[in-house]
Prior knowledge:
Strand order of the largest sheet: 1-2-5-8-7-6
Distance between the termini: 46 Å
Helix content: under 10%
Strand content: over 45%
Radius of gyration: 15 Å
Largest sheet: 6 strands, antiparallel, barrel
Order of helices and strands: EEEEEEEE
Oligomer: single chain
Amino acid sequence: MAFEEDLSSFVDPVSGFAVNATVGGVSVSGIFDGGYAGNNASAFGVESTSPSFTCEVSKLTGGYDEDTEVVILEGSGAGNYIVRDPEPDGLGMVTLTLSKDE
């Protein structure tokens, strides 16, 4: 029998850092990182990271391919996003690199 870890405690919006969202129309909870955009004194003068959402792969029954709609329902990053790069970790979690849906 294969070992399966309960990952729900990592993405619990009540006792952890998770937020509620929908991915492909399916309700899920996960960790939202709003990314960073700044201006530094480097040769190019700009640095940034994209927003991301990390959650359990098993909860994404609606899919999570590129261009899937993600709606962050609460917190400072609440809004509509589009998946740009899904990155499953092979251990049951996936990080969805997002872009703002405008």
